[in-house]
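Hi U.,

Before I forget, here's the chain from the pilot set. I'm dumping it here mostly so it's searchable later in email.
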Amino acid sequence: MELAEAVRRRAIEIGFDLCGITSALTPTTLPQFHDWLDAGHAGEMGYLERRRDAYDHPERVLPSVRSVIMCGVCYDPERSHPVVENETASPVGRIARYARIAGDYHDSVKKMLRELASVLHELQPGCQSRAVVDTAPLLERDAARQAGLGWFGKNTMLINKGRGSYFFLGGVLTSVELSPDEPHKTDHCGTCTRCLEVCPTDALIEPHQLDARRCISYLTIELRERPIPRELRSGMQDWMFGCDLCQEVCPWNRHAPQPAAEKFQTQWSPSHAAEMLMLSEEEFREQYRKTPLSRPGRVGMARNAAIVLGNSGDAQFVPVLEQATWDSSPLVRGAAIWALGELVDAQSSRRLVELRQTETDSGVVEELDAIFASRI
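Structure:
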């Protein structure tokens, strides 16, 4: 059996749903990536700009690389996305599907990739390899398309005809020269624009173009040390972490398969936003330290939860939001103040009136001034 075919078969045996091979090449979308950075669409993800040159070729990740093995593993598509509901049945907190599997997918996928790499070392002693999942300077979707795994959707996701887009990507860079697969050259999106139309913050500024600064996933996960821009808060709807909307409406996800491995099935339900808002640092770490929610951290998630409660239109959350205005983090206090302003008249809240006299953080004062000014 040819070595490349042995690798593909072993990848499926390990648990991957997709596996393809590409030669180590300069990414075809490198010019678009540079244009995207230059336009400022990466927002505050400064690490992308700092290492922009590292994306030029896979050899920047592994100097001896000759081939890149790209693999995909499906996660739970959940046809009906569960939400925590309050007594009036309005949704009060959604978490993106990928984040609710057991543990952090980076760890699970990398373990599988390392097992695949070990096969190469058995068959080609002395070879070099490196397993990468998301964090290395490799344009993974570009490499996956080159390896024949799918095409770029108008929502910028990689889409596979049989698997949709609900899958994790990872790769093994190796010094072994393997027979490559044919690149995927056909776009199967046609005239469909559902993903562009459904985005509540207009983050998809045109087909295949994402302005991350407007994307709910970026706002709730990556923008974790600043307030979410006021003009985008209502567009967050009930999303506390991430967003699945542009994938939910994609026709290619109608028949997305269930993951075979239990570890990639949904393992936990989202917390109520009011509960998330009130968690202490210790409680948050205990519940979420081994999940993707640890990236925005307690403060980021509490900020997001406050905005979700403000978007609920339900005044029953006023007491918990008023309590959150005592939070040690100005980021959380500011979000809670904005949410209160969405639910009640500022002058009718004794707590808001009191805060206007005592708050010293300039950012929080700005939030207070904004809601009082809006009632004049």
